[in-house]
Amino acid sequence: MKTKIYMDHAATTPVRQEVLAEMLPYFTEHYGNASGIYVVAKESKKALEHARAQVAEAIHAKPTEIYFTAGGSESDNMALRGVAEAMQQKGNHIITTKIEHHAILHTCEYLEKHGFAVTYLDVDENGKIRMEDLKAAIRPETILISVMFANNEIGTIQPIAEIGKLAKEKGIVFHTDAVQAMGHVPIDVEQMQIDLLSISGHKLGAPKGIGAIYIRTGIKVCPLIFGGAQEKKMRAGTENIPGIVGLGKAVELAVAEMPEVTPRLEKMRDRLIHGILDTIPYSKLNGHPTDRLPGNCNISFEFIEGESMLLLLDAAGIAASSGSACTSGSLDPSHVLLAIGLPHEKAHGSLRLTLDWDNTDAEIDEVLQKLPPIVQRLREMSPLYEEIMKQQN
Amino acid sequence: MTEYSEKVMDHFMNPRNVGEIADASGVGTVGNAKCGDIMKVYLQIENGVIVDAKFRTFGCGAAVATSSMATELVKGKTVQDALQVTNKAVMEALDGLPPVKVHCSCLAEEALHAALWDYAEKNNIKIDGLKKPVNDIEALHHHEEV
Question: Which of A47, A76, A291, B37 has the fewest C-beta atoms lying within 10 Å of its C-beta?
Fold first, then answer.
């Protein structure tokens, strides 16, 4: 069966029609290398700077503080490795959290092998860091704090402005991975005192393979990729103009539409969450009940395993994801679900449904109708459920 | 997500032999919830022949499909012949499994062996070639990097 209902927007989104339309001329008509001095190159250069201004405006930054990359992972790598290398004379300590994306965690592991020390902060049962933990983790040699804006799995939004304020007071560089937050929650790098911020295009209606990093003026970052003078020598390689145009347009649209889209998403999300929790026993919401991304619903179902649920949902035309081991390609369930204190068996039975602008109320109704029998069917097959039922009788 | 063969999907979408057998001749449970796979197999054995087999499984698509196929394969076999239903045989009957899912087929073999062991113990008989099953199959496989 074809996917009819797509609820995995935290994994990726379709490219928006308006975005694609803006991009298309830059493949064939305005194909020039932005470094050239002829007319066709000037169109590319103009588009590049227009997109830079669009992204800057969306987060209240200056256009000169925006650098385009090939995506969120590159931006995260660049922020961590770039700051670590540029500031290693000052110190070798980095603070992050246990629930970061692997683009952060694996980069931290790499840095640990190269002379840096990393503190991984715990989170509470809702997935929030505790400010007192962060304060206690700061050392004289701390050079960087990297805390994600909003979590990709459970949607929990961190107290970014508070972290920014503390980092500023202590003179520590503050990076946030805003890949999931961008275009979904308001971001103001000035008010929130953010020094570096990672953005990805394909999470908000732009194509895959394009991203950006905001670097506050005055923050020292070493580049990752050498070979040309593009992006003020901070990121070599001929600019991906169509992608950049798409990212600029998608960011502009998402931010402009936020006042209308966010309340609609939150309403659908809450109907989905409560609809599931009210009809399916032994289910539990993962993540913060209110400080969460407007489109994120993450629920654990006891006695069943996530991949089985996804296969049955897929057969019913619904695309979703899970934090079970079988979907992670390893034998351990999601590190995020374990970090919020879920036992392995409940983490295996998690289901993530992530909504965005193209989801409808009718789709929520359909999921609420189709999910309960799927959970029940797997429970009927589960020896764990059988035990619970026998205990109750 | 992993790509499954059509046979795996068929046995996952339409699992054979789900359920339990009251007063079964042998029951075996292996795996643990921590690792995300538990298989419970019930065997009804008459005159040394497996006349019925049922299962309940907590696990991924491959775990359900291998449970279904393994119970299908042992039905009608003597307890001795049932030992030939190895993880390899179950996998082959399913047209293969993705490499990360191979441990699920081990779970099916172990669950069968555990049920046969239970039957042998209850009836005070010895089945040639059957070893005492490990209670926690995952302890064997959990640290394999995949």
Answer: A291
